[in-house]
Amino acid sequence: MGSLVHYCPFFKSLLFISVLQIDHFGFAEDATFKQRYLVADQHWHKDGGPILFYTGNEGDITWFCNNTGFMWDVAEELGAMLVFAEHRYYGESLPFGDKSYSDAKHLNFLSSEQALADFAVLIEGLKRTVPGAQHSPVIAIGGSYGGMLAAWLRMKYPHVVVGALASSAPIWQFTDLVPCGDFYKIVTQDFSMSGMGCSESISKSWKAIDNISSTDDGLQWLSSAFKLCSPLRKKEDAVAFKAWLQETWVNLAMVDYPYEANFLQPLPAWPIKVVCQFLKNPYRPEKDLLNGIFLAVNVYYNHTGNAPCLNISQTATGNLGYIGWYYQACTEMVMPMCTDGSSDMFELQSWDFKAFSDECYSLFGVRPRADWATTVYGGKNISSHSNIVFSNGGLDPWSGGGVTRNISKSVVAIMIPEGAHHLDLRYNNAYDPKSVLQARALEVKYMTEWIKEASENPKCPHNQVC
User: How far is residue 15 from each of residues 11, 61, 77, measured CA to CA in Å?
Assistant: First the structure.
């Protein structure tokens, strides 16, 4: 099925290459590309032992390997082989090499549907070529976009995977499925719960920035006060500066973990509580307020103390493929979001599909299809599916677009009140809240049941009629 490449940095695991069709759904394009995937089989019970298959997200697969400790924690207990598959167009799995992002023609094959087909073909190839894997039940696992893919893989290819664990998977964050303001309301709630005056300080900071950035001296003061790598020189720079701050608050909400972690950035335990120590008084003079905002964002960007300046062009790890994800948002992953400035701590910003479409066209030469994801994956009409666990954290803004209630006996939701973005997929930690430990135990219980069902009838798995 593939050739050996090298080791994953942190674990005893091997990376392989699979050769796949660039286009699974047409016949005019017959070219292939090389997809990376990682295999760890030291705990695998051969001759039918289960396979836990990570459905890669929008980034380098070795980074997801090193940040999905749950799979490593349960591999021995389940006797499972681990496979981490890289998503096409991310990491090193580039269908057209250096030209993959060159234009809309080369980007045309970047979609969730093509990626799901990649995963299905890879799984069937592994079962066909790896001795002892022919009757191995496969469980899809993923977080965030990868969690969406895990759920959709079970929905679209139920003969390939026996079940799916979809953590922090916002499969309902699409047009007319959930209110567009829920995401930012949850971000605001996280800051409101973490300190008196915290969200109010952020809310008042936007006007303060507008006032101070209205003059050249004010722009210079902001650049100096925030130790920016590139100074703000014009009004448009102040707009980008505010967008950078907004994304920073969002990222902090996503990674508000109960212990020190290095997922998007190196951060202390409960980072929002640390941030809110600097944002207690929203009624300070504007420059004092913004000095507090600087100290707050410095927790996110310079917890180690090693950053000589703050770069507003980057808000998270370079392991994520932002251009590719923005292209997907500009085609099929259209996720409406808005703020109202009253029930959240952000400036008023309505959802303007036409403006978004025009921006996509100017960037990529494509226009988004607002309802396509719902058409392809069913929106909220998913009760006919089976063996899917949706887990969501109460602190995670993406839970607003997630499945947070049971749909049926076998399409179930697990809520983790103290959980941020896919906390349950991270390693067990001494500081984990009880709710995430209970969630992981329940997830293993469901997976054990799926494996047992498949093993009792290996020639007719996945609840099929034979």
Answer: 11, 10, 23
pLDDT digits (tens, 9 = 90+) for 93-112: 999 999 999 999 999 999 99
Gap between the Cα atoms of 105 and 352, Å rounded: 26
Distance CA 438, CA 205 (A): 39
- Taking only the tens place, the pLDDT of each residue in 110-147 is 999 999 999 999 999 999 999 999 999 999 999 999 99
Contacts of residue 381, defined as CB under 8 A and 6 or more positions apart, other chains included, come to none
Question: Is residue 279 a contact partner of residue 293, using CB atoms and an 8 Å limit?
Answer: yes
Catalytic residue among 118, 396, 424, 432: 396
Q: Please, are residues 396 and 257 in contact by the beta-carbon 8 Å criterion?
A: no
In this prediction the pTM is: 0.95
Which of 100, 144, 194, 391 is catalytic? The answer is 144
Set 421, 422, 424, 435: catalytic member: 421
> What is the helix (H) or strand (E) element at residue 36, kind and residue range?
strand 32-40
CA distance 431 to 446: 24
CA distance 466 to 457: 10
421: annotated active-site residue: yes
